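Chain X:
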Amino acid sequence: MPVDLMYTEAMLNPFRDMMRDVGSRGLTGPDVDAMGAALGEMEALAQSLDDFTTFSGQLTQRQLFSKFSDAYSRALVAAAAPRPGEKPSDDSLMETTLRAYEQVLQTYESGGAGEGMKKMAPAVRELVGLGRSGISFPVFLRLVEERGMADLLSGAKIVAREGLLESLAFSRAGWAHYDILQHQREVELYDQLAAAAPLGVPEPLTLTLETERIAWELEPSRRRWDAMIRRWETLLDLLVDWLDAFAAFAPYDPRWNPPGASQEQVMENIADTQECNPGDFRFREALFKEYFSLTWPEIWQHETFTWQYTSNQISHSDERLMLVLETYPLCQPGGRPSPALIARTEQMHTRKAHFRSTNGLPPPDKPLMPFMLPPSML
């Protein structure tokens, strides 16, 4: 089913008008052919796609707007070119150039080149006004160059602020902590550079280099953040597995009973967890404290834990997390969980209460919510 005509007509009509314009003038040649090819591709996309957003995105991605406009400008310039031996006048060159930009302005203002390009309309309008102010063509060209319009209007890459905002919104929806920080700074950078730019659009190379600088500055903190989360997640898992290894369901749990394992292998796996996890846990806990300067109680109040807990990225239920806290002092080499703790984890397993009900659901749109520690740990 084609894209709704209500949308495609508004977007493609300006280009159809320009195509009819060159036809009425009797213009031919490679540039006119390029216009026809670009418009034909636009028309084909309108018929083959059924979603306007996808259609608009394809037009932008394939640069069909700029291909058509560039070819149209070249066709008009070629039409105004003098016959062999005849020198073109400045007035004719000025008129040809301004007519091309007036068509571009009409396309931008109507939204025919996409919503993002509407922001370029004031720059093109300024250029047309400059040309219509009575100055000569050489002066016009000099001012265009001095004011930084040349690269902008010749198709230089424009990074739309909307794209940065979309990246920021996507990161917020996924609770990607350092992606949020990075994209926030990128938007601020864009606004600062745009405010200082003559046409309100950042210079592409400066924007690219400054964006890379932001990513470079955040990378050490990003890696530390991720490393902390991976390591305290391992500590939680070691305690959970150690307690569950003493439960009646352990011989049937895939953590110890993988496909094809014999009964003897299963019991060896369980015994390994019971005997080795306490030493492994205490060794990793000491390393964690050495590298990150956080004790076991402080982990639960750290911003990384609060962030993961709020955003549904900790799979353990609150009941299981409380059980982990009670298991912690007993997890010592040669130690064993109390019968009460073993009974509670078995009950949780029966009720399937060991995982959070919100596990795997989209993160909530709410403030950070720290895990409520028992008074004995505060």
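Chain Y:
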Amino acid sequence: DGKSHPITHIGNAHIPLSSSSLSLSNVVLALNIKKNIISISKLIDDTSSSVEFTPSSVYVKDLQMKKMFAR
């Protein structure tokens, strides 16, 4: 919307997945933003993963375990 939204909190977030959870650090909270926004670059760096987009899905793969952990 072109407006600035003040950040009110910074912390950690745990996103539940079907078989585990995804932990993200230094997550910012801006109360006026109603949607969750994830930086793909930060996700890849923090979790040592790769992200693949298809027309109907998003896949997140752990590069160390060579295993998909989110779809």
